[in-house]
Every structure is written in C-alpha cells, then in structure tokens.
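Technical annex, item 7. During the second reporting period the consortium partners agreed on a shared format for inverse folding records so that results from different sites could be compared directly. Each record opens with the tokenized structure and is followed by the designed sequence. A conforming record, contributed by the partner at site C, is shown below for reference.
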C-alpha cells in the first residue's frame, strides 16, 4: 500500500481539495496541515508544527516553504513554485527538482512607480560548465508580470524577460538572443528597470558584478501590470536576493526596498479609518473579479421563462444575493407571477435560478479577469502582515477556487467562504458572520470590500465596516457609469 503526503498552507488550496471541500481549517502560522493518503483509503488530516526555520523539505501539491512573510521587500512565499525552498527571511531560495521553477519578488514596479529601480541577486549555487540536460544547477533572473508561469523558467512566455547563466543570452516568448556574459556561483547580477511614464514603456537592463551588460529589453506594449523581479532555478540552483539599500554594486537608481513604504501607508490607512482592523473580506462578485456582465447575461438567458425585463443596474445592485431572492425581487418589482400558488412559484423560481447559474458557470470561468486595483490591495494586505484575508462568494466553492487559481490569487487568501458554507436563504448576513467566525476575528474588526449599496447595508447589519471598492483608483467596472442608467434590456 502506497502512502502519499501533501502539505498545505492555510489558504484556499486546501478548501478546494475535492475530498475535503466542505471543511475550513485555521491554525496559528507556526503550523501547517498535512494530508496523508493511503491508496484505497480515506485521507487523514493532521496539524503539523513547522521546523525552526519555517521550511518544509518535502514537496507537495499544496505548496511548501515559508508561511510567514516578513515585512519589507523579499521573495514572496505565496507567489512561488512549490518546488523551491525558501528561508525564513525570504531572501535565500534554492531549487529541488530537475526542471526550472520560479519565484517572484513580493513587490513590483509599474507606471505609477515611474523612475529607475534596482535590486541584485547573488548567485550562490550555479554550475556554468554543466548544461541543464547534464544535471547541473542553473539560474535565470529577470522581470515578469503576475501572469508569468511559475513552473517554468522566466522568459518561457510573453510575460517574462530573462537573463540566462549558461550562455549569457536573454530570453522572452521562449526565444533566446545573444546578449551578455555568462555567470555562475559568486557573481552578483544587478537588475534594473526604467519606467517611462511619458510614452508608457519599460527598459530592462542587467549588470554582472557592476559591469553594464547593456539594455536587454524595451517593452513598448506596456500595460498597467506590475513587473516583479523573478528568479528561476534548475535542480539545486541557489540565489540570495538583495533588495537594498546596501548593494554590492550600486548604481544611480531607487532601491527596490523602498517599495515597502507603500505597505506601511496601506497598513496605517486601514487602521486609521475604523480603528483596529484584523481582517479584510473581499466579495467575489464585482470586487475581486469583473464578472457582473456574466451574471447579467445569465439572468437575461432565463428572462423569457419569467417574462422579465431589467437593467444592468438592477442586477449589479443585487450582486451578492441568492439568485432565488434576486429573481423574487425582480418579479415583485414588475408585478409578475401574482396569483400563483406558493409551491408553484417556488418550483418556477428554483428552475430559473438553477438555469441561470448553469449558464453563468458555463460561460464565465475561462473569461473572467480580476480587478487590478483589488489585486493590488490584496497583495498590500498580505505583505503588511497580521491581517487575515478572506473571499466571500454566493457561488459554489469549486467555481470560486478554479477562478482564483486561474488568476493566481488563491494563495493570498486564508479562507474562502462559499455557497456550501451557509444557507442561501440567509446569505446576505450569514455569510459575513460565518467568515468572521472561521477567521477568529470579531465582526467589528473586519472590513468588507464591495461595490453595491445594498451590500453595504447588509455589511453594517453584520457589525462590520463596508469599503466601497469603486473609489479605488483604477476600478474599471461598467457599474461605475450606471448610476443614472435607465436603459432596459
């Protein structure tokens, strides 16, 4: 009988596991959860204390490594491949497998961060004379957006821009081009990115032991995405990240470590407005993901069944209500279904709600995108430390987890509270109370991000503090311009 062991941090990865998707687990940060699965039997869950340096040596599908992110700029313990070992200080990282695995830095730069930014990687484990296919340890460093694949080397796709140790080539979109000098153990690679706000373009260049290797990439198709320092390790490759301010080979640029000031401002801001805050809750619909148009179209798909007409604003305002309640409200507004028996009405509404959600799941999962402003808030909160993060959703857990994983956001949240965790007939208040209970945080110390005025009233009834995500810079939902809309569709 074979035995399989998997280690999980306390995030939605565990909540999404098919064998235990009805459970929510929360333990102190000094513990992790181990699932032992014997072939032919049910999995056994056990709380396991982390080692003294907060590193778990066994790789597992749920992720391995540090479960406490130190304050300041460092390598992210949540935004990395599970095949990498990370030190407690989150500055030293090493590989474990015959294949490239990557880790992004906790902080990135964007057009908002205009100017020149610099950091260094000290190469501490790298075999220059042994090619990857020969089993040697290798390193690639570079810059990448949050969309870059972590189970592949930087430059594997269009979202990363790398500098290779073996031949000194540069790489993006999987294409290598001659560039600079090779590097190996003992070398220090400087990483510089210039953000040109006027014209909206980036310039990336690298340094080897203080020697400028020249401009490697000019990115003219720049978006609002952040670019993060990233390292890719093959086999037992090792590096030490140096965000500054003390560099071995300084240049005239802003050290990346100064980005941590943004976290301090964020931390102070959420405490100053409502007093002490221990948890941030984010509604899934229209706050984390831009999915309200899919919900609107889903309601349109069943409108003929109930002979309904409604505007986008009607649907958007009831974003976090059970579809049964939403349909009942829409019918009541139009005076429909009067004279219908109670059982007959319930059966019709249940059928319509079921068809509506089937349409939504079918058409939305692969197309939903996140709101960058919300993603930025989530990452700020995660880095600020001592703040618990949760997702609240009326959709099923399987759908929510799938979307969060697709958007690479699932590791940033401590728990997900979804449809399976509460009674949909009382979802408006109950889901917030359940979330606070699972987090172990009093409701009055919770802030909830949402976009609907109706939700704000419910949040206050739950004794929590609502925060209007629409006021965040960059919130691009169509909802923002629907306040005076009266069009019926």
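Designed sequence (site C submission):
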């Amino acid at each position: 009988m074979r035995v399989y062991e998997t280690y999980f941090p306390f995030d939605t990865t565990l909540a999404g596991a098919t064998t235990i998707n009805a459970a929510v687990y929360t333990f102190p940060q000094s513990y992790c959860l181990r699932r032992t699965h014997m072939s032919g039997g049910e999995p056994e869950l056990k709380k396991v204390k982390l080692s003294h340096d907060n590193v778990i040596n066994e790789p597992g599908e749920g992720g391995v490594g540090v479960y406490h992110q130190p304050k300041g700029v460092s390598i992210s313990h949540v935004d990395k491949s599970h095949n990498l070992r990370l030190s407690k200080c989150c500055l030293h990282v090493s590989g474990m497998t015959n294949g490239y695995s990557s880790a992004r830095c906790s902080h990135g730069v964007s057009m908002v961060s205009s100017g020149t930014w610099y950091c260094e990687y000290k190469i501490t484990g790298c075999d220059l004379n042994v090619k990857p296919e020969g089993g040697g340890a290798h390193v690639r460093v570079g810059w990448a957006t949050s969309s870059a694949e972590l189970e592949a080397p930087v430059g594997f796709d269009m979202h990363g821009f790398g500098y290779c140790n073996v031949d000194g080539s540069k790489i993006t979109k999987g294409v290598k081009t001659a560039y600079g000098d090779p590097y190996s153990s003992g070398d220090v690679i400087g990483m510089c990115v210039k953000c040109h706000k006027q014209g909206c373009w980036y310039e990336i260049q690298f340094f080897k032991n203080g020697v400028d290797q020249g401009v490697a990439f000019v990115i003219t198709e720049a978006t609002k995405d952040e670019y993060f320092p990233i390292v890719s390790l093959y086999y037992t490759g090792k590096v030490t990240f140096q965000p500054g301010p003390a560099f071995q080979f300084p240049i005239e640029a802003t050290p990346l470590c100064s980005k941590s000031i943004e976290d301090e401002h964020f931390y102070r801001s959420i405490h100053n407005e409502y007093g002490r805050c221990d948890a941030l809750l984010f509604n899934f619909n229209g706050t984390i993901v831009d999915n309200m148009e899919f919900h609107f179209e889903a309601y349109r798909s069943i409108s003929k069944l109930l002979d309904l007409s409604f505007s986008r604003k009607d649907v958007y305002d009831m974003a976090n209500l059970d579809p049964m309640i939403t349909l009942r409200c829409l019918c009541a507004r139009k005076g429909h279904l009067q004279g219908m028996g109670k059982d007959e009405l319930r059966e019709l509404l249940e059928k319509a709600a079921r068809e509506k959600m089937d349409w939504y799941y079918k058409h939305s999962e692969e197309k939903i995108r996140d709101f960058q402003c919300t993603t930025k808030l989530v990452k700020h909160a995660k880095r600020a430390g001592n703040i618990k993060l949760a997702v609240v959703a009326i959709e099923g857990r399987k759908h929510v987890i799938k979307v969060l994983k697709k958007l690479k956001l699932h590791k940033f949240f401590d728990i997900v509270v979804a449809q399976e965790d509460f009674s949909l007939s009382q979802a408006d208040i109950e889901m917030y109370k359940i979330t606070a209970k699972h987090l172990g945080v009093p409701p009055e110390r919770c802030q909830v991000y949402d976009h609907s005025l109706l939700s704000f009233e419910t949040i206050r009834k739950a004794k929590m503090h609502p925060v209007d995500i629409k006021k965040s810079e960059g919130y691009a939902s169509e909802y923002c311009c629907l306040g005076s809309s009266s069009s019926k569709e």
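Confidence is low (pLDDT under 50) at residues 1-41, 48-67, 477-489. The CA atoms of residues 29 and 397 lie 24 Å apart. All partners now use this format for quarterly exchanges.
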